[in-house]
Structures are given as C-alpha cells and as structure tokens.
Amino acid sequence: ALQGDYTITVILKDRLGNTGNIISTNISIINDLDPPISSASFEKPLIHVWEDFYYSVNSNLITLNAADKLSSVSGILYTLNDSAWSNYHSPVLLSDDATNNFIYYAYDFFSNAEYPHYLKILSDGKPPFTTISFNNNIYTNDNIIILPPMTFCTLSAADSGAGVLKTYHYFGSNTLALYTNNYFLLESPVSNTIAFFSIDKLSNYEKTNFVNFLTTFNPPKTTFKADPDLIILRNTNYADPSTHYSLTSSNEYNIP
Q: d(Cα 208, Cα 157) in Å, to the nearest integer?
C-alpha cells in the first residue's frame, strides 16, 4: 500500500442481504525504508589518528548501540579481525598490543541494513624508549661512563605506537624536570647519576633509566724507562749502546 492515512470500513451481509454491524477504523501506513543508525563507544579514551584509525590502551572494550526512526532495531552484527560475523550482545574486548580491524552494522525488523562501519584500532600497551648520547668520546668502566670535561648530552625518545608525549630527567637528587630537547651540560669535576624516562600519549610510562657518569680533568701520566738506567753526567744523559727504552702511560680510571 501507498504510504498515507486510510479509513477501513467493514460491512457484513448474509446471502439474504441482511446487513450486520458496520465496523470502521482509521489506520496510517508508513513505509519503513530507512535502516537503523548504529554507533560505537569505548570504555577507555582513544586517540584519533586519521579517518577511522585510532590508538587505544590495552584491555579496551567496545560497546555498540543502535536506534531506528520507525520500526525497532532487530540486531547488530560485528566481526573482529576477519572472524565470523556475530550477533552483538555485550561489549567486545580488543586484542592487546595488536591492530584490531572492527566492522559492525545494524538492521531493523524489515531487514533494512545500514552500511557497515569500519574501525582500525591499534592497542598500544608499550612504553616509549629513551636513549642518551654524548657529543664527546666516552669510556665505560664498571658501569660508570667516564666523560671529558664540558660534555653535552642529549635525550632522544621514540615510540612505536601512539607517540611520545613527554620526557623527564633529573641529576642525582635534583628536582624532576621536563626535557625540552635542549642539551644539558655535564660540568667537571663531578660524579653523579642521570635518571630519565618518557611517557607516551596513552600514558604508558617507561621504566626509569639510570646512567652513572664521571667527568674528570686528570690527564694520563707517561713514564719513561731505560734498561739499564741512564748515566747522568753534567746534566747530560748517557746510555749504553745496548740500552732498551720503554714508555708507559696510566690514568686513575684505566682509560685506554
């Protein structure tokens, strides 16, 4: 029937032409051609990257809802990572540390189905990784980095997921400070510890890194030796033709 308002009248007659009660009622016919509209919500916040691509923390749940203008919603179907289509009944748990491809759509009692919604959600539970570098040559002895004086060092952080948000550092007992991509100077002489860590945009914290360092002005000491010993006469060194000579150097930290 065409969409509109109608009056239906029913007249009952028998074979002898006797007329019974006349029954009349008004009805409205609405053609439901529109599909439901569904949406997804998440238990924990997401970071929108572009279009339908998001970053999420681990152990996140997707909740689906749908509404229909005329008839009622019959159901919602979804698939996660190419699995078989399932009827939605309760929140869906995303896979941890993985890319989740999630597709869903709703349909009503007249089999009107909406176009599927596509979501790509990267669950990221891994913290950033921060490294330290120096502008001078360094030497490591018993887990202590020995540096020349007036050395600059730089912190660099990287994250394979949502991206680095902030990096913090401090020296010894100094106050924790935000690292702003500037060099900081290791003055001499000093023995101390650098501590540093980074946080990503999903609040994944890196375990604090500790680097013990020592800067020193002390140069190496060189020793000259002759075998047999030289003979000194009138401020002049005299040696036997068979004399062997050697030079040795050393420093307090055994730096080669």
A: 13
